[in-house]
Amino acid sequence: MGFATGDVVQKERQVVATIHFPLSGMFSLLVVLKGGRTLETSVVGREGMIGARAGLGSHTSLIRVVAQLPVQALAISAKDFRKLVADSTSMAGLCLRNADLLLDQARITAACNSFHSVEERCCRWLLHTADRAESDHFALKQELLSEMLGVRRTSVTDAANRLQKRGAIAYSRGKIEILDRRVLQRLSCECYRLLKRNSS
Fold first, then answer.
1. What's the predicted TM-score (pTM) here?
2. Alpha helical stretches, state H, 42-150
């Protein structure tokens, strides 16, 4: 099944009914606060799955899952997935490993949001997105990036302008192109490498 950028795959405070296995693209896991403010805690691409904890029992999601890039994914009902997990210790182990990876991602992201600049975090996010898009070209609205990073849009605009002046990216009409990945990696915080290692 396919999802377009912005599609909501799982709503917060709802029982997980379907488990998704991305074949391409990227899902964002968002904490939603009062007033509709959101903050990305982790992302999932081909290395993971969405809704794995439901394989270990009925699970109500505390987060919203949104397709951040166009996604192609396999899907299985939570009921069928629980049967599969009950019959397979290796599948149960995979569910636990996935949960651990997401927890580690959330911990690293929390530290990153607390200690690193908007520009460093923006570089990290662009690099991770390019990795999962498997391309240095992808669509990106500044409003969306500001929501993912939990900052004002003007902060993202300023960071993007600085990155363009340094020749790291080109940004126009909602399209991003990474021009110099080495510059972007140098300007990113260490969290890019930590998260990349975590997801490999």
1. 0.87
2. 78-86, 89-115, 118-133, 142-149
